[in-house]
Structures are given as structure tokens and as C-alpha cells.
């Protein structure tokens, strides 16, 4: 077997690694994986998609792990052995705290798989890279020191603040074709650009992999996206995923892996594919992947990973890194790249897609001001060398015409390596010449860490090349309309300051009175002289030895870090139904993990559950009355009002030892893989959440923390339950006692005393039921280790 185009690519630039590497730790064990797959083939006896090959070759027990066949995709629960874990600094705080406890009780000295921590989310964006980084290091010193000490103790690679954004670093250093990895961040699938399965999970799942416990995943369905034709002019891979998000919507990928195939895949750069995979998270996909291509091979060489490329070439030659001929997908979507035009998505949701040619009309129809207030490029999604050379081309054209950007224009490099290479190749200076501010290599304005001084509380529109655009996501202002577009469209529009400017057709008027029109941008996917690593003191040594004597210190009076007390089991005295639960509120409409546990200034409390829980659901809408952050305590003691903030009512119930439940709408918990969105309700005493539907990662996170997620069998029942009602489960005991087909009903007693019963559905596996019974997955794992 020859991977398409590989035979033609002997001219790729091979660069020695400027970063120290331990190749065995970053090369998937291909012979073992291929052998595992042979066992699976003996059971399934049918052609396999690429996603299936990668998943099934990572089964804990490849011989018996799939039972005796039958339907797997969408039905079977897989026990998997991921090959790597990566964590960002916000979620890693929880994992490090939990791991320290788990490792101590199990007597483990080091992580079972190579693991890395990346300091990126806690860096604020305000003045520019140097000042922002220095200030953020000082204000987060305690947390960075804590994470570094945990990393030292357990042999984890620690990427210092300033080294870059987790997903860009993973792509440059750890991702490899055919690998299965977990990351405690929803955009972990970015690494799929290198033909692997990278899955965003909560911290408790990461702990599974780090302790060598089988990691469970319900086998996803596989959607095939067949790419034909060629991108041209202004259209980029960003436009492909923006277009697909419009087609699939934020729920279209739930429980599914998106696998791209066809001739159109092979013409895209590896980093361009990473952009597509990154934003698969926006349609709720488990992850996205692509067959091994010549561009992936070149990228591995350019980033100093020739030995990994060589091993991948051999694995591809044995048919491991692409789908089998005639493999069947659960659905196939056809996209002709030649038909794609630049697309702009938003505001407030990533699936509201408008082709650029219709965007001006759309803006006018909505009655929005024709005014752009800022342009932001970069982030983990779009800061590749290709992206940056293409925007630099536009900046050079503009500079030659005497133009500078009309609005603040901010650029976030994805990694220190990208930043240093941009500087060496005069890309940064070209952008700065036309007015750009280059920010630190960190998440900054993508995660509410943009300390924006203008437009506070005012309606305004910004364009970003980021991936997510929920309300308040960038500057904390819920009136900021955030539109997503490719870096080149963001850049060109920043020179006009107008929201209806179409750089493909419109001209700008120069001071001289002449008109200027941009030529379509051109760039280069990889630097001809290779990447330069920049400041290597920010990088870890590869696979450091654990230092068991290192102290992991949490100060008793810390406001940033707090030891976690295990949650207790809700079942007592042999009763296997949940205790009677008070309904805290009925949440209306879109409720993302940003609504449940806001980011921005709250990120600093990620390691302190008591403090961060003060933000529980503070931007959620109460369906009874339509207010934001209002809940009702119908049993308020004398002297307290019934209506209060949501966290305050939750605290009142906790103080009364009254367990409670939430009634929620469709796709509850979409967005970031935010552990705290499950931890916080549980901390305040929530045992059950009943939804019209759940987003995958969040549903799993709830299960891990011992909260039972149930789906309304009839979505209309949502409106029949109100705050103050009491809910009891009926039939949960049957399920817990081993009757898998048992239905859980809810007996509802309303505040007026009326009683009725409704059926529900669930997705609890046998193992997940054990977590529920133990009070949390961690309680269960700990009990198994002792
Ligand atoms: Fe950081 Fe934004 Fe990427 Fe998340 S999506 S990792 S916040 S840059």
C-alpha cells in the first residue's frame, strides 16, 4: 500500500530537532497496535474505518474487548488504553489535586502514560506579550508552583507559562498518526490534524489513563466527510469547518467521530487539517481525524520528528493509517472544496454560518451597526506558519498602499516556536508595522482573559479566528457580538473597520483618493529553513524521572488551592433509590459549560472548589420568570427572601442537607470540557440532572462526579416540573441491582401536592452505575486500588 502522494515527497525538508526528544515516548507502538487490530478483525470480519482502527487497536483487551461481534458503533462500551494525556493549567489543578490523592492511596510513583501540563489559560491579555506574561506569572505564582511540584513528583512534562497553548504544543511535539490520546480540554481534537484520535475529556477521565485504569467510551458512530475539489483564492480549511458547523449545528456531531477522506484531504497542510479537527468540537463531535498524508509526513520532519514519520510510513504501508476500502460510515457528507467560499459564523453560536458574499446583507437585515470594533487572530485554532504567512502577505499589501488597521488588531501566537519563527522570518514586524499588537503565547482573549478597556457593557462586533463565540467568551461583555472567520478575512476586514466589507469584491479608498483592493493572500505551509524553538528554558525535559521526595504543597489558608473531600454516596441503609430531591430550577435554553461555570476571572479559582462554586450557573436563565441568575427558595426561613442568586439558593439547600436536582433543556453542557461544571453542582448537593438532551463530555463528567444524568423520554415533560417540586426515582434500584433493561421513572410531587410519574432514558454503563453507587468515579477507583 502506498499512501497517496508519499512517493512524490522525498524533497521534504528534514530538520534535526532543536528541542530535546525521547523518540520512543512520542512514537505510537505500531507493531503492537497492528497486532491488536488483527485480533479485532478476526471478530468483526468487515472493512474498518480509520477511526475504528485507531480505537479498537487501543482496546485494553483486544481479544475479548468487543465480545462476539454484533453492533459496536453507537452501542458498545469500549475499555480503552490511551497512549498519552495532556492537561491545561486550569483543568490540571483539579487533576493534580486528585492524582496526588489517588497516587498516594494506590502507592503509584509515576503516571502510567506520558503526560504533560501546559500553562496557557491563566495568562491575561492586556498590553502585549512581555508585560502580560510577567504580570500573569506573578498573580498565578502559587498555582504554577503547585503544578510544577506535582509534575516533578510524578514525572510529568511541565510546559512553563509562555511556552504556548496546549493544542499547538501537542501538535508540534507529541501528536502522531494512529495515536489515541486524552486531553482535559474540549479542543484536544486539534491533534487529529496529524491523523490520530485526540479526545477532550474531564479531569476524572484523565486520572483513569494516568493511573492505568481502563478508560471507557461508548463506541462513537463514524461520519465520513468526502472531500473533493480544491480550495482556491480566499477559501481556507477554516471556511470548510465553519461551513460544516452550519450544516451539522452544535449537536450534529454528538456521539460521533468525523472522519474525512477523499482526494481533497491530501492537498491540505497538516496544520490546516488541525484547524478542521479543532473545530469539530463546535459540532459536539467526539473527535475528528484524517488518513495519513504527505503533508503530515512533511510536518513531522519539519518539527524534528523524522523517526516518528519513518515509523508512521511503515505503519501506513501496512494499511493501519487509512480506512479499508469499502468501509462503511454511519453517514456520508459530500463537500466539494471548489464550491467553498469564505464563511463568517455567529454571533453567540458557532453554527450560525453565513457565506461572506451574503454577510453584508445579513448585517443590514439584523439592523446591526456597520462597525467592526476589533480583529483578533491566532489562538490554538489558527496560528500556524501557513496562517501567519498568509496574513503577513495581506499586511505587506496594505503597508505598500499606506494603510494601517482601523481597529485594534491582536495576534496570539500558538506557541513559543511559532512566535520565534514569526519573529525570525519578519512576520511579527510586518504585522506590527500595520498596527498589530502581538500578545503572549497563551489563550488570553480566547478564554475571557482579554482585559479590554473600551466597549464595556456596550453592544459591539468583533471578528476572531478563534473557535468559540458564546456570550462573554472574549472580553466578559455579553453585548460583544463575536463572529468567527479565517485569519485572512479577519485581517482584511480589520483594515476597513466595517462589518460589511467584503475583501474579495470591495475596495478601500486611500488618502490619495485612489482605491485599493487586496489580492488573494498567499502563504507557505512550512518554513523553508525549519522552525526555530525560541526560548527553550520554557520547555520541559522529555520524560523526566519522577522525584518521589518532591513536596506538593497546598497552603492551609490558600484562596487558590484546596484539597478535595471525597463526595459521599447518596445511597444509605441498602436503599438504592436516590433520596427525595428538591428541584432547584428549570434552566431555559442554551446552557453551556460557560454558563454553568464561567471562565474569565473565575479561572483563578479552578483549584479551590469552595471559591469557584460561587459562580454556579450565574449566567443561566430561569425558565420561571426568564431572569438570569435568579432561583427560588420556596422554603426560605423567616427573614430571607424567596428569590436569590442561583449559587445562594444552592448553598441554602446544602446547609439544610437537602439534596436537589436541576431540570434542563437541550444539549445541556455543550462547550468546554469543564470539570467544574459537574463538580460545582455536586459540591452543593446536586444528585440528579434531568435534560431534554446532554452534550457528551459534560454528561460523562456528571457521571464521574456521582450525579445521575437522565433524559426525558418525552421532551414535553420538561415544562411539567417546577422549582420546589420534589422528585423521587423509581426503578433505579432495579438498574443498580443488575437489570440493564429497567426503566427509571421519576415520581414528581408538585408544590400543590399533585403527584405524577414520567419515564426517562439513560446512558449509564455497568461501570458508570458503580461510580454512582460509590458517590463518584474516584471513590470507586480508590476502592478498587486499596
Ligand atoms: Fe486556549 Fe481558546 Fe484554544 Fe481553548 S480554544 S485552548 S481557550 S486558545
Task: Explain what you see.
By secondary structure, the chain is of the alpha/beta class. It is 31% helix and 17% strand. It contains 26 helices and 30 strands. It has a seven-stranded mixed beta barrel with strand order 21-25-26-27-30-29-28. It has a five-stranded parallel sheet with strand order 4-3-2-5-6, sandwiched between helices. A hairpin with a 5-residue loop joins strand 29 and strand 30. It is globular, with a radius of gyration of 26 Å. Bound molecules: iron/sulfur cluster (SF4). Residues 582-714 form the Aconitase A/isopropylmalate dehydratase small subunit swivel domain. It comes from Lentinula raphanica. One of its GO terms (molecular function) is aconitate hydratase activity. One of its GO terms (biological process) is tricarboxylic acid cycle. This is Aconitate hydratase, mitochondrial.
Low-confidence stretches: 1-11
The distinct ligands, each listed once, are:
iron/sulfur cluster
Quaternary organisation of the protein chains: single chain
User: How many β-strand stretches?
Assistant: 30
The best one-word shape is globular
- DSSP strand (E) fraction? 15-25%
Mean pLDDT: 94
Strand order of the largest sheet: 21-25-26-27-30-29-28
Q: What gyration radius follows from the Cα positions, in whole Å?
A: 26 Å
Which percent bin holds the helix content? 25-40%
Class based on secondary structure composition and strand pairing: alpha/beta
